[in-house]
Amino acid sequence: MTTRRSEDLFEQAKQVTPGGVNSPVRAFHAVGGNPVYIDHADGAYLYDVEGRRYLDYVMSWGAAILGHNDADIREAVIAAAGRGLSYGANTEAELWMARIITEITGVEMVRMVNSGTEAVMSAVRLARGFTKRDKLIKFEGGYHGHSDSMLVKAGSGALTAGTPDSEGVPAAVAADTLTASYNDAASAAKLFEANPGQIAALIVEPVCANQGVITPREGFLADLRALCDQNNSLLIFDEVITGFRLGLAGAQGAYGVKADLVTYGKIMGGGLPVGAFGGRGDIMRCLAPLGGVYQAGTLSGNPVAMAAGMAALTKLRREPAIYDRLNSMGDVLREGLRQILKDARLTDAATVDGTASLCCLFVGRERYRAFFQKMLSRGIYLAPSQFEAMFISAAHTMDQMRETLEAAAWALK
Ligand SMILES: *Cc1c(COP(=O)(O)O)cnc(C)c1O
């Protein structure tokens, strides 16, 4: 295996971009070695600049749920691009997109933005404006993008780097973000009690997927709903990962708990940069131009991005059997990995968690490093961090699950 070209590109990139990357986890600091440079992707595979093929479990961090370069999405993008790339004015595509999202998820109104970070940042401001309160509750290890108030005990890249609290976040801003323990509703209840009438919103990843994957305990999400109701605070579900993945209706559908505001990203853009936040009509109507909470975006609702998102969501709605296949592959992968841990007598030091098409093999930072490199050498591309999920797409197959398990058994021996 030669990685000369990837190494050369990375060296050059480091001269002009901090760390050579546009998002920290891509630098491979947590797993060592040189990051792979991608030339193109198709279906379940990535191809690097040296023509090497990898079975991909990052899938653009879950955005590519239909597989890379899905033909329907690609055609929709090409058709939209033929009519111009951006207008900064209204289009019918935005209306379609808002309609399909409200129909699928049950949110009453929705607004488009350009990333998950932006969706969360906007939802948080809206919650504060609506409740006229400043404080927020989030969970330790919960990742909600990189806006100031959310970089407090955050997961994902922040956890990987070992610096959960970013420099540059004003202490006064961080002070309004209180943190509870995930799957421990009593820890959130204590924060509500200690701050009566001050909590604008509680935000949660319904399934934690940025500190490994942790599924909610029975009743946990319903308890959070009840706590928010008792305190006249808003419940925000950050469904940037779970939205359109745990089934069409996301975590709200899968767990039967309704949030007041919901944020989306990743899958809903079909691979283009799109996010959205939505929820109760009375809350959403507080946004400008109707209300006093300001929020805007030059490229929000971009016609090419809307076309990609529409194609993705339309296909997922038209073919609900996709979810059965995705979830079966998830079950096989999780079950197989658990068996491998047992066989390798690693069950004390390691666990497998996840649900639907999300999976995480947790073996600890040091062991993961070696595991990642061995899997890479077998042509399997895992997240370059222990704290991220494996994402299965509709382009993956059962045979590939078995191939992956076989490689994993060898890599963990
Ligand atoms: C990825 C992610 C975000 C941030 O989305 P970006 O598009 O990367 O800004 C927010 N919340 C969750 C749960 C995420 O997984």
Number of helices: 14
Beta fraction of the residues?
5-15%
- The helix-strand sequence is HEEEHHEHEHHEHEHEHEEHHHEEHEEH
What is the name of the CATH class of the largest domain? Alpha Beta
Small-molecule binders here are: pyridoxal-5'-phosphate
Structural class: alpha/beta
Widest sheet: strand ordering: 4-10-9-8-7-5-6
Oligomer: single chain
Walk me through the structure.
By secondary structure, the protein is of the alpha/beta class. It has two domains: 4-69 and 320-411, Aspartate Aminotransferase, domain 1 (Alpha-Beta Complex), CATH 3.90.1150.10; 71-318, Aspartate Aminotransferase, domain 2 (3-Layer(aba) Sandwich). Helices cover 39% and strands 15% of the residues. It contains 14 helices and 14 strands. The chain has a seven-stranded mixed sheet, sandwiched between helices. α2 runs antiparallel to α11 (303-318) and α12 runs parallel beside α14 (398-411). The longest helix has 23 residues, at 321-343. The radius of gyration is 21 Å and the shape is globular. The protein starts with a helix and ends with a helix. The structure holds pyridoxal-5'-phosphate. Residues 115-117, 120, 143-145, 205, 210, 238, 240-241, 265, 275 line the site of pyridoxal-5'-phosphate.
